[in-house]
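Propose amino acids for all 318 sites.
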């Protein structure tokens, strides 16, 4: 089963200038062939389908714990897209009086020519889609779960390699602060997963995959948004993402980082501290969460009091 923590794996900046076209590019990192839906579902299904777990325990633990981290990555990419779409649909035409309507014109009219109108019309309430940068829905065809451990680990190494190319291209194409914070973090963490699958293959077969690094040749230490994560050693660490399970990952994730020579480690804490998510404001122009969000907030407040909960929401946001 999966335990859920209401935090993001890293801090994202709050909404600034909206960038709907940039958001449609970032979609590639969510629902593209090499995006986070693909890494998440590949490792998740490989772990579901894993036979003889006890016999191959360290490898099962590795794939299962990385799968859990990828769940947090789809959450992060979605939060980034939602941040970039914020401020594009905050003027509701329907609630405006006749004079205001003349002034507003069509508040969503400027969005006619954005790259992906589905962020606003169907089904989108200015929210992330499970699709790539061209609007194609993510598909289970992107999942490779052969049952053969060497095949699956080799595939996973290739998948992480392709994912790193995609992240760098998005970094270079989109300069929105949220997109840069996202790609800086994911380049570092995806790099750990690439090393993890290489080390797993080396430990299983003896093949020296360290000679393939860096692949592609991305100098993460020269990318400002990668630096804080490198300084904290996030390029060397794997998390178990469980309070008590998946303890054998250190049997395969070990040795030194092929690019820096530093020791690879298993984090003592089960999961990264991460950061609180920003509470993204309503976008009533697309009914998210409603044309009159303040009414829902009033109802929620009444229900909270009736249930004996504190007057103020108990959850936390940044
Ligand atoms: Mn990932």
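Proposal:
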């Amino acid at each position: 089963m999966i335990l859920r923590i209401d935090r993001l794996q890293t801090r994202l900046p709050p909404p600034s200038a909206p960038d709907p076209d940039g958001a449609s590019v970032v979609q590639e990192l969510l629902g593209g062939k090499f995006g986070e839906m693909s890494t998440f579902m590949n490792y998740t299904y490989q772990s579901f389908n894993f036979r003889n777990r006890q016999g191959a325990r360290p490898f099962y633990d590795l794939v299962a714990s990385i799968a859990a981290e990828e769940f947090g990555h789809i959450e992060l990419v979605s939060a980034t897209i939602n941040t970039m779409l914020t401020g594009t649909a905050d003027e509701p035409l329907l609630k405006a009086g006749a004079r205001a309507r003349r002034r507003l014109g069509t508040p969503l009219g400027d969005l006619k020519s954005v790259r992906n109108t589905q962020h606003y019309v169907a089904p989108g309430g200015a929210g992330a889609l499970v699709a790539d940068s061209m609007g194609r829905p993510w598909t289970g065809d992107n999942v490779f779960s052969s049952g053969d451990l060497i095949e699956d680990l080799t595939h996973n190494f290739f998948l992480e390699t392709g994912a790193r190319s995609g992240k760098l291209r998005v970094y270079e194409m989109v300069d929105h602060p949220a997109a840069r914070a996202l790609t800086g973090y994911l380049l570092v963490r995806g790099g750990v997963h690439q090393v993890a699958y290489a080390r797993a293959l080396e430990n299983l077969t003896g093949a020296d995959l360290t000679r393939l690094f860096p692949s592609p040749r991305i100098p993460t230490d020269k990318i400002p948004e990668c630096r804080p994560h490198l300084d904290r050693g996030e390029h060397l660490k794997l998390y178990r993402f469980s309070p008590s399970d998946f303890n054998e990952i250190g049997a395969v994730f070990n040795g030194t980082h092929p690019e820096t020579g530093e020791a690879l480690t298993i984090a003592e804490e089960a999961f990264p501290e991460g950061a609180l998510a920003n509470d993204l404001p309503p976008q009533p122009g697309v009914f998210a969460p409603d044309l009159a969000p303040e009414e829902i907030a009033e109802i929620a407040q009444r229900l909270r009091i009736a249930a004996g909960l504190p007057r103020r929401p108990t959850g936390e946001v940044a």
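The chain has a mean pLDDT of 95. The first helix runs from residue 20 to 31.
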